[in-house]
Amino acid sequence: MNALNALFAEHEQAVWLDFVARGFIAKGELQALVEKDDLRGVTSNPAIFEKAIGHSAEYDDSLKAVLSQGDARVIDLYEGLAIADIQAAADVLRRVYDTSDGADGYVSLEVSPYLALDTEETLNEARRLHAAVGRDNLMVKVPATPAGLPAIRQLTAEGISVNITLLFSQSVYEEVANAFIDGLTEFGAKGGDVSKVASVASFFISRIDSLVDKKLDEVGGYEDLKGKVAIANAKLAYQRYKRIFAGPKWAALEAKGAKAQRLLWASTGTKNKAYSDVLYVEELIGKNTVNTMPPATMDAFRDHGRVRATLEENIGEAETVMARLAEAGIDIEAVARQLVEEGVQLFVDAADALLGAVAGKRAALLDHRLDAQTFKFDEPLQAATDKAVESWRASGAIRRLWAHDATVWTGRDEDKWLGWLRIVEDELERVDLYESFAEEVRAEGFTDAVVLGMGGSSLGPEVISATYGHREGFPKLRILDSTDPDEVRAVEAAVNLETTLFIVASKSGSTLEPNVFRDYFLGRMKDVVGADKAGRHFVAVTDPGSAMEKAAKDDNFRKIFLGVPQIGGRYSVLSAFGLVPAAAAGVEIREFLDSARMMVRSCGPAVPPAVNPGVRLGAAMGVAAKDFGRDKITVIASPGIGTFGTWAEQLIAESTGKEGVGIIPVEGEPVGVPAVYGEDRLFVYLRLTSQADARQDEAVKILESEAQPVVRIDLDKVEQLPQEFFRFEIATAVAGAVLGINPFDQPDVEASKIETKKLFASAEETGALPAETPIFEDETVALYADAANAEALRPGEGFEAIVAAHLARVKPCDYVAVLAYVERNEAHHAALQEARLTVRDARQVATCLEFGPRFLHSTGQAYKGGPASGVFLQITADPSADLPIPGRKLGFKTAIAAQARGDFAVLSERKRRALRIHLKGGDVSGGVKRVAAAIKAAVAG
Q1: 141 assigned to active site
Q2: Is the CA virtual torsion 927, 932, 935, 939 positive or negative?
Q3: CA nearest 504: which of 493, 494, 513?
Q4: What's the whole-number mean pLDDT along residues 527-549?
Q5: In this structure, is the dihedral angle defined by the CA atoms of residues 405, 409, 415 and 421, taken in order, positive or negative?
Q6: What is the mean pLDDT of the chain?
Q7: Beta strands in 431-577 (DSSP E)
Q8: Exposed, middle or buried by CB within 10 Å (0-12, 13-18, 19+), for 442?
Q9: How many whole angstroms from its chain centre is CA 55?
Q10: Is 142 exposed, middle or buried (0-12, 13-18, 19+ CB in 10 A)?
Q11: In angstroms, how far is CA 247 from the centroid of its own chain?
């Protein structure tokens, strides 16, 4: 008989092993310990699993088997591995359980340490794990935190065996013991068999000496107490155990066959090399207790441990030790509270490392199915980003974000706008709805589907249309998000109304543009197919109870799809607002959502920030803008996914640009040589492997070599683009938190809407918009500015001189935005794009080219509410001809003019550097060319 055997045989102290690993069980090593050393139980914790899973390849085949069939959440992958190990260990120990009549033979599995401060979540997790393992000889580990105590009582009352962990205090131990007795009493009163419930109270040893010894060093003069306090504390806890389980409450339970909750000595590996490596085993040997040892301590005790009944020796000396500790000014209860807090954090740290390891293995096994992300930053930016990422880990911010905790941001109403976090899973449950709609559209023979919407209702569908293309048998997907009469006419001219389906998309149902679009095309459809059939050519996507829903019912629309009110427009692309147009265009919705879900899982609450792609990107965006002045995020994208930036710019600008801070997205600006950039850029390169542009690759490589910060995201195929929608949504929410703003409101967009509504309403009453006085006018242009801007522009010197004076106001790290309220066509875009790039190259500043009014629901928020570093050149025009809107007094000409003037009024009110150029006479193309020429001349030389 060796020393380990003797502990139970001679002193009724059970030896448990504080270790578990797959190969250890599979190779029979656990069984060998049971047979040779009379091992009677196993404990586990996140640190143990982190070592087993994170630092070996033993689990890789199991992970590979799961991921070869699809995908899974990181937490589910971990739990699948852990539960299999716990079940296997429990099966090995089943004979011990049976022969001891359920006193021993247990394996312990810990509830997530993330839940240590939440009673209800601890209960739910404990119940779930108990059911998932499905073994009688499982103990669920629950920490002895204030939130854990009621959970211990309730779980015991439900007949679940519990291992209470992180006990350091004698008084808290009493609370734990009484919680067990009270819970078991309740269980018995409900008819439960109390003999089938067991429990251990894990009292930690070595950590007490580690902390107390440090405190004694600080105090000085009490050297003789070092290495003695932990043992004294444990011995006195055992005396309390004896009193509690000799009382009348316990006697009644014992008479029914109940088993006393045993004290389990945990943390018995010696941490101080000056102490014996078996100190915390030899000095705590006593009847009806457990000592759970790490493998090294077991080996040491087997080799040279001395076995004798020590637990009740020198109790008076133990009391003296504790009294002298108090005399030294060290409060053992305060020590215990500190150790509980540190213990929870240590387990959280271990859980983070464990889940990070699983996440890393998942990403590696998914390989090209998961879009990859890499960072090329200089050391200061990388270090600052890493610090922010670690701060998110230490504060549990990603878990709090997923738990809808508004304090991640400003603590206002952010929690009410997080429906997008789970929308992918929710929509996967409704795939049949979208698939049946797609089949209906195909069967009807529609040739075109036109989305009538703005901002989040149109930009996502636009990217889907451009990326997925025209699918055989399905209508061509088009977007109308401009009130410019020429653009409305162009869309109508491009389709056959008799075979066109209109998708009217508006969350609130009160947005001006979708309503006038609906009014116009519904009127035209009635003209073409008749009033009784017109509604069959329309589908509405709107939030429940909106004015749009009512109007759609009144007009007998073919279908009404309802959105989620807790999702803002710019976060809605993975909801009905993106899926209805995608389904109409023949995009395979299940595949689309499955791809998105892969990134949802990669960015989930159980994925630590260091390996969470959304958190890492968001931290980089926020830190670069806030701490390094790199607040111009410049999107570069391969052909095939080139329109992604038009969606991302709304998400980023509208979410972050407010309260005088923010990130200005730069989209559609071709990558240039390093010399044309200042030090205010952060580049994001979305590279599509199948359509990579060698020139882009080389240009980005040169930027990296010149220390420009670059985030590179690699997509294997276009069908993986849905992953990027979710990555950027999480990243933007994280960036908002770093910047200290609410990323879900848009106060300055609302200000522009209010101004526009006032102007349009006034025009409908009077027949025209209010008259204006230009600061300059000639035959083809009229220029407008508020008094402050006019003073800086030398208005008497002519058109080109005024434009030059305006652009002369541009300073380093500013940006120039051309805001064109004209038809968005190739000719206009080409002329203004050339001018824009001339400004960039000459002044080394970021440039933006936007077409109104669509940008009002996109970057307009950042332009008005973000940093005051923009120089704005607004272009408006007399259209070639107006277009009446059925049921309204005025046409599209007045609508777009009201929007432009409302926009300009708010820019001026926000004291932005803004100049408006109005093109007269209806020759819009000629006017655009003249403006472009003036811009280029202004920065020449």
Answers
A1: yes
A2: negative
A3: 513
A4: 97
A5: negative
A6: 96
A7: 448-452, 476-480, 500-505, 538-542, 559-562
A8: middle
A9: 27
A10: buried
A11: 52
**Predicted TM-score of the model (pTM):** 0.94
Rounded (5°) CA angle 345-347-352: 95
In sequence order, what DSSP letters do the residues of 307-338 get, joined into one string? ----TTTTHHHHHHHHHHHHHTT--HHHHHHH
Q: What value does the mean pLDDT take over residues 421-436?
A: 98
Give, rounded to a whole angstrom, the gap between the first and last alpha carbons of the chain: 95
Q: How many CA within 13 A on the CB side of residue 327?
A: 10
Strand partners, 476: 448
Q: What six digits make up the tokens of 444?
A: 């009807």
Output the pLDDT for position 941. 64
Residue 497: which of 532, 522, 471, 460 has the closest Cα?
522
Q: What is the mean pLDDT of residues 40-46?
A: 95
| 28: region left, alpha or beta (phi > 0 left; psi from -120 to 50 alpha) | left
**Which whole-number Å values give the CA distances from 743 to 613, 789, 815, in the listed order?**
19, 30, 22
**Whole-angstrom Cα distance, residue 340 to residue 348?**
12
Q: Which of 36, 51, 141, 226 is catalytic?
A: 141
**Calpha distance 795→705 (Å, rounded):** 45
User: Which residue in 351, 437, 463 sits closest to 398, CA to CA?
Assistant: 351
3-state secondary structure 180-219: HHHHHHHHHHCCCCHHHCCEEEEEECHHHHHHHHHHHHHH
**Residue that is written with structure tokens 């000095």 in the block:** 283
Given a contact cutoff of 8 angstroms between Cβ atoms, the answer to whether 147 and 118 are in contact is yes
Summarised one tens digit per residue, pLDDT across range 542-575 is 999 999 999 999 999 999 999 999 999 999 999 9
355 pLDDT higher than 80: yes
**What angle is formed at CA 527 by the lines to CA 525 and CA 528, rounded to 5 degrees?**
65
Report the distance separating Cα 677 and Cα 691, nearest Å: 26
Cβ-Cβ contacts under 8 Å for 364 (sequence gap 6 or more): none
Which residues, listed in sequence order, are joined to residue 68 by a DSSP beta bridge? Answer: none
139 beta partners: 108
Q: What span, in angstroms and rounded, lies between the C-alpha atoms of 604 and 374?
A: 19
Backbone angles phi, psi at 435, to 5 degrees: -65, -40
